[in-house]
Amino acid sequence: MSQTDFIYLMPLLILTFAVLVSMLVIAAWRNHKIIYVITALSCIAAFGSLFELRTTTAYVIEPMFVIDGFGVFYIGMILLTSLLVSMLSYAYFEQREERKEEYYLLLVLATLGACVLVISTHFASLFLGLEILSISLYALIPYLRTRPRSDEAGIKYLILAAFSSAFMLFGMALVYFSTGTMVFSGLAASIAGMQELPLLLLTGIGMMLIGVGFKLGIVPFHMWTPDVYEGAPAPVTAFIATVSKGGVLGLLIRFFMEVDGFRYPVLVTILTIVVIASMFAGNLLALMQKNVKRILAYSSISHLGYILVAFMAGNQMGVEAVTFYLVAYFITSVGAFGVVAMLSDKNSDAELLEDYKGLLWRRPWTAAVFSAMLLSLAGIPLTAGFVGKFYIIAAGVNDQLWLLVVMLVLNSVIGLYYYIKIIAVMFQQPEIEREQAIRLRPSIYVASAGTLAVLALLLVYVGVYPTGLVQLIQNVLVSVPEIVAK
Question: Could you give the CA distance from residue 472 to residue 475 in angstroms, rounded to a whole number?
């Protein structure tokens, strides 16, 4: 590797170095605040190094990685989200007696894995990034082992993730057997002249998509999502909903851009069915839930369906819409789970609807922030979620995906019900005993409130003035090649 290669890999190297430093510090002296500071500084330093990589041309590190505008933007989005999650985690774990320091090691490693995914152009780097991310989540999900359902969530994710990794590996083997290459561009060159994919190659790509579908939590690979969201600590749930899924989605976009997968009717048909099923299953199942974390889990399934509508557009506008919606979704999801984390105590998370009864009268600013996040998820105007959903609909209409657009609008109406249900509970008259039960220490409240205030301001700013973010996305994605229409 050359010196230039190291410069372009600097964000990944900073995260790796931060893990090593944290391990040495933990071995010498356990201190929650010091490890948190190292984690936050590593995310900030890695993000700062991205400003040296701003370029309109892609830099290729053969044969594993490509650093272009798309990769730089997604890495930046992942790093900033991880920084916000670490800030929420500090306030969340301050009131708990478990050993907290190893949590930040796992968080940085998972962030590293997600960053590797979005710049991968080879099956080896793809699988390496995916496993770094997954293995870290194996430990993050059941981190609070004394918590009810924590071990169940960890075991369920471990078993299903192992199956999905096996599917992906076997799919990679079939693709390599059929084409003789593991590089995305080599695969694209091998199938460029094919009007229909051979059965063996189609099976291999299909098995790879099964592995990706599990990580995204879309139908029919969504079974783990509500249980894991419920059993994991609230900051970990926020991380899974945003960084984990964002990294895998970035990988999926890059892979389909390279191989031009939308030229093949079989893949398009399968993806269309998955998108519609994800929207309906997520929203309809969320209607029956009384657990806020499970509601947000099923909501995430439907939102991945919305995002895939723009992905199905198969063009530059679709990629821009996906990216914009991801930014809005990251803000709202971290904000929503941040409220859950702030209201949680040392024994359990504030996950039941009863925990939010009368919240408006007890904590008006917290209720206002949570309401704003929920309204953004519902796609109400003046929020980032509304603009993101409008962008997705515009991408779908531009490519004449009328069925998917109609299904998106219909499901948005269905989803509005359970978001309003949570807000209505917060408007109910409070019960005095509940007010005493969820009272927080001032230091923890202040630490969480700062993060939530930043997210609320971003939510409204992007909703009121989206032009700046749209222009930024268009500028950084200028190096991304146009996907040929289906």
Answer: 5
